[in-house]
Amino acid sequence: MSRIPERNDRKSGRKPTGGAAFKGRAGGAAGAPAKGGWSPRATEADPTAAPRASRGKVDADGLLWGRHPVLAALANPARKGMGRLLATPDRAAELERESLTHGHKVEIMEAQLLERMLPQGAVHQGLVFKVQPLDGVTLEDMAEPAEGIIVMLDQLTDPQNVGAIFRSALAFGARGIVVQDRHSPVLAGALAKAAAGATERLPCARVTNLSRALERLADLGWRAVGLDGASDETLESALDHRPTVLVLGSEGDGLRRLVAEHCDVLAKIPMPGGFESLNVSNAAAVALYEASKKQRSLD
Questions:
Q1: Is 203 in contact with 176 (CB distance < 8 Å)?
Q2: Residues in Cβ contact with 219 at an 8 Å cutoff, skipping those fewer than 6 apart
Q3: Residue 192 lies in a domain
Q4: pLDDT, tens digit, 9 for 90 and up, residues 235-288
């Protein structure tokens, strides 16, 4: 395994998001245009209409929403005594009735007010939890004893993908997930929603340098398998029963060179159907399934 120190000066590429959607306004009030027509007065505010609350800029880094993420956070002992739990009247009654608050006080709030706290389109299901980031675990705590599977993410920044990987990693029994501290999203907001509670149950280690982390894991008895679509070796042949670190790169760039050089082997998921590649979260699920099969072969 290479011992070349890693440079962390490469910026991850991000695709620009779409522009704002155009919203029309129906006519019908006094002074509104006839059907099919136009009038400059159509843009004037209706003096009899109730004022519309502004959503404003939303910072979702400290918010969890949706049934699964919030219930998992409430049940997490590390969250005891922290956070602000907001719920609609019906959901608050359910939490109290089924003893799901775990000691947290519920603040009742109407659904429309919850919506204004969240990003556009967020599905809160009547529950919002304002929290502080959890303390992660150390690499050594996650890796000792050396057995099972660890997932390492090399500059994956899309919250939906990272959340889906957390969910798959928990489902297939991974020990935890390792990310680079400076190039990974916060475990809240849309990421936590996509993870469906997995971020509260699966340990996460944030490290400064992934290459040095792979060196440390090698010292502790772990073997690193990097996913690379250009490799000649298949994932099935690259995996074995030994403690395995599955290393996944970003969708745009894949594994960075120095991270790839610190892997023991690079492998691809064969695509007999002829499709060029899988979404990174789907590739992670396939790799976790294959790796877990190898691990179970020891039983």
A1: yes
A2: none
A3: yes
A4: 999 999 999 999 999 988 899 999 999 999 999 999 887 666 789 999 999 999
Mean pLDDT of the chain: 83
Residues 161 and 275 in one domain: yes
Sheet holding 204-207, edge to edge: 204-207, 176-180, 149-154, 244-249, 223-227, 265-267
Q: How many domains does the chain have?
A: 2
How many residues are listed for the chain in this entry? 299
Pairing state between β 223-227 and 176-180: unpaired
Decide which of 107, 130, 153 is a domain's last residue. Answer: 130
Amino acid letter, 265: V
pTM: 0.78
CA distances from 128 to 99, 108, 143, 199 (A): 17, 10, 33, 16
Rg (CA), the chain: 24
CA-to-CA distance for 208 and 222, rounded, in angstroms?
19
In a domain, 52, yes or no: no
Domain boundary among 89, 113, 130: 130
276 and 240 co-located in one domain: yes
Q: Which residues lie closer than 8 Å to 38 by C-beta, 6 or more apart?
A: none
Same domain? 287 vs 160: yes
